[in-house]
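PROTEIN DATA CARD
Card holder: DNA polymerase III chi subunit
Chain length: 149
Origin: Vibrio orientalis CIP 102891 = ATCC 33934
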Amino acid sequence: MANATFYIITPDSPQAKAEGFGEYVLFLAKHFAKQNAKVYLNCHDKAHAEQIAELFWQVDAKEFIAHNLVGEGPKYATNVEIGYQGVRPSWNRQLVINLAENDTTFANKFAEVVDFVPCEEKAKQLARERYKIYRQAGYQLQTIEIAHS
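Structure generated from the sequence above:
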């Protein structure tokens, strides 16, 4: 059965700020990649995808995670691929981490979806809409409040 996990970002958490959120995305991508999951990061647009890819280069060499933008890198890609609306992952991906704030849903495309419920009201409403679509598509849903750390 497909699963969708929504991480709730509270206003006082470090993830509520752009830098803290970026670090959390890196943490999640690394966590899933270490489990040999084929991870797809879905961004707002090409510029956002390039910005996220740059974050992967900013880590200490010991913490480096192999990654590539859609259309770049090795033929069968790396465990972490970064894309945006209108492009498709290079090959089969099991898990998507959705970073886009639009009404994108991944129902029936990925076995695992990681999504976020931001603090801002409009973005929060879009997350609720995605939640409803996943539920209607038969996804097993869970929500996790990000710990204050």
